[in-house]
Design goal:
Helix content is 74%, strand content 0%. The chain has helices at 2-62, 69-83, 95-119, 123-126, 129-164, 168-175.
Length: 200
């Protein structure tokens, strides 16, 4: 009878330990997933900050009658494409939507870079205080975007690793935890972005 009680007690302790491990593992995965979502919200915040700067930038540059309209229109069109997308953290569940978001943002980055290169040819625009202020804000925003994307990738890597490592992968499978996408470098990203602010 004592042996049976000892065996049952051992089994009960093992089941309790396994249950506690499963709950702890699940909660840890939830915490990592929420960290990815928090990092994603920072990416969105920085991209929104850039979107908010663009109308002022366009208005300032538009003031020059000789400015190349095609370059300006490319920025307006790229901003419109980004603005037409409905993006929330559900995009993290859909790799195709994530890629579409990333491509639209890359298009806007490229259009803004071209705009800044062209502005170099227009000293009357570059000399205005308003434009110089916008340049500083845009440069700061681009730096914040780069940091937010790196932080997001770090959080996604931590989460993706956690859901794939055994034995936590078993809990992840039952709990519906799925991989999160990464931001990838765009072609030419090894070169510094051309938001050259001449005269500074």
């Amino acid at each position: 009878m004592k042996i049976l009680a000892g065996v049952l007690g051992t089994i009960a302790v093992l089941v309790l330990a396994l249950g506690l491990w499963a709950v702890g593992t699940y909660n840890g995965l939830v915490g990592r997933r929420e960290n990815v979502a928090r990092s994603w919200s920072q990416v969105e915040n920085q991209y929104q900050r850039r979107m908010d700067l663009i109308p002022n930038l366009v208005a300032t540059v538009k003031g020059s009658a000789k400015f190349e309209r095609g370059t300006l229109q490319a920025v307006v069109d790229a901003r419109s494409r980004v603005g037409s997308m409905t993006v929330d953290k559900s995009v993290l569940e859909d790799p195709a939507a994530f890629k579409k978001f990333e491509a639209a943002q890359a298009g806007l980055t490229s259009a803004l870079s071209r705009l800044m290169v062209v502005v170099e040819r227009y000293p009357d625009i570059k000399s205005t205080q308003n434009f110089r202020d916008l340049q500083v804000q845009l440069e700061g925003t681009e730096n914040r975007i780069a940091v937010a994307r790196k932080d997001f990738n770090d959080a996604a890597q931590d989460y993706n690793t956690a859901i794939k490592v055994f034995p936590a992968s078993a809990i992840a499978g039952f709990g519906g935890f799925r991989d999160r996408p990464y931001f990838e470098a765009t072609p030419g990203a090894e070169k510094p972005p051309v938001v050259s602010f001449g005269g500074r």
